[in-house]
Write a structure and sequence with these properties.
Length: 152
């Protein structure tokens, strides 16, 4: 084996051996964790959920919408509308970048706009009927996620 391809050997003191032992034992579980995270982020259902949450947060800052029995977290974020808009913008950029990562630049940006418009339409359509509740959103996301996972 050539000299330049060998991995560097750490010094033989106890702390380095302990770190090496820790890294070798946890590397398999950490790899599994990162594979699960990568698999979750590469799902279109997760991209849709991020756009959904971003649109809800942005809509939460509106003064014209009457929202009875609003959750406590959303009440606090409604008082701090700038923070809510920053969080919403971050979620939108994250979802759009995941879409671009999945589909490429042109089709990813187009898909991000389409999904954002779809989520906005769904929220505006179902919001007056009180369908947009956490159990409904979580249940729909889990069904879509499982279907997408089983298809892949």
């Amino acid at each position: 084996m050539p000299e330049h391809s060998k991995r560097p050997v750490l010094s033989e003191d106890r702390s380095c051996r302990a770190v090496n032992l820790f890294l070798t034992r946890t590397s398999k579980s950490m790899n599994r964790f990162f594979i699960v995270i990568k698999c979750t982020l590469n799902m279109f259902s997760t991209i849709c959920l991020l756009f959904f949450a971003a649109f809800i947060l942005w809509m939460n800052t509106s003064k014209r919408i009457i929202w009875r029995d609003k959750p406590e977290l959303l009440q606090r974020l409604a008082k701090e509308s700038v923070r809510s808009k920053y969080i919403s913008s971050f979620l939108m950029v994250m979802a759009a970048s995941l879409s671009v990562y999945q589909l490429g630049l042109g089709s990813g940006l187009f898909a991000a706009v389409v999904v954002l418009m779809c989520m906005g339409s769904l929220i505006v359509l179902f919001f007056p009927f009180r369908y947009v509740r956490p159990p409904w959103v979580i249940g729909t996301y889990l069904v879509c996620f499982l279907m997408e996972y089983l298809i892949r």
